[in-house]
Amino acid sequence: MGLCLLVTLPLEFVFRARVYRRIRTLLLALLPVVLVFSVWDIAGIVRGHWTYSPRYTTGIVLIFDMPLEELVFFIVIPICGLLTYEAVGTGLGWLRRGRPSPRRPVGGGY
After folding, report:
1. Which residue ranges make up each domain of the chain?
2. Reduced to 3 states, what is the DSSP secondary structure of residue 31?
3. Residue 50: how many CA atoms within 13 Å on its side-chain side?
């Protein structure tokens, strides 16, 4: 997950994705994802549909035995997706104008 953040981090600067600069918008985008998937996971754990191997997790558990890694996953992957989405929107805007210009961000939307 750290590698995912590391690989997509340059998109914030090269393509002016502006994901990290708009903290409030980022949090509003993450909130429903984290809530829905956490509830989904907790329901699966409580019902015994799946478990997590202590061999592949840190052993830090949150409510209802959900491992910390699962929550981190629900935060990191959407951030990487938002960075990619914003970067693609900016790149397409540059192509439409016929010239790449990192000084003029398009800023998609989320």
Report:
1. 2-94
2. helix
3. 10
